[in-house]
Design a protein that fits this description.
Layout: H1 15-34, H2 48-67, H3 71-95, H4 103-119, H5 127-134
Helix pairs in contact: 1-2, 1-3, 2-3, 2-4, 3-4
Length: 143
Amino acid sequence: MTRRRMPAMRPLRFARRWVALWLVAIACAVTVSLLPAGDVPTPSIPNFDKALHFTSYLALSTYASMLFASPRARSLAALLLLAVGVGVEAAQHFLTATREAEAADVFANMLGVVGGLVLGATPVARGLQWLESRLPITAPRTL
């Protein structure tokens, strides 16, 4: 008896576009994290930046759960996001003069990634499939 492997991706009509959007979102998170501190307006609420780290990585991880069907693929995406979070903190330390690397930021990122994995076990994981089912189906253009 052979075991059938679960496909890595969810069945999405626009899978490549959704993955590209996810990669752009990651690039945006990295860019904002490396901008000079004065260029990123934030309210003077204590630990507000930790909440931003958590929600950003929660969104990125949840989105990955909507893209990837197999537990292995979701785990690899989570590891990628964790590496990005650690890499950004290292870059803030070594490449910027106005940013500080903080272990608490890495921890907030990690909690966000774990939260996205948890949401991946709920109906939220089928969010992109739901969205695609509501998009109008258009016929290919003819010249």
